[in-house]
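Researcher: I'm preparing a figure for a lab meeting and need a structural model of a single chain. I don't have an experimental structure, so a prediction will have to do for now. The sequence is pasted below. Please return the structure as tokens so I can convert it later.
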Amino acid sequence: MRRAHLNRLEGKAPRRARALLAGAAVFALLAACEPIVRVHGYAPQDAQIDQIQVGVDGPGAVAQKIGRPSTGGVVRDNTWYYVSARTEAMAYQAPEIVERRVVAVHYDENAVVSGVDVYGLEDGRVINLATRTTPTFGRELTVLQQLFGNISNVGSTLAEGFNE
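Model: Understood. Here is the structure written out token by token.
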């Protein structure tokens, strides 16, 4: 009787192990399909922006209501920029920006808020930062030409060292 009971348990153990292994495999596959999400920066939400009073608030009041900005104006310090971006990446693919929010708080010459603008990803433009290139003269070498050229230069450099 005891032996029959053990035989029944032995038959169930491999089935349970297979079911557990199959469940773990399904879970791993589903987890691999989930994108890696990263959020960088800070931009206040619309409810926070609505608290800013144009023509009334100064930099101190804005800082209390929505916090200090991550970036200020480049040429003149009359605009505060709050920038946030959300990127997603699937497995080994390059990250893709799926959401960007830029809030610009503009100040007049009296340091009073003159306007607030909100920009999204759809408002952005691709900017080519390096439009000028420096021309190179001579010819382009292949990897093998560079390798063998360097080997021959090492020999001549060593010979010069012995002649001194």
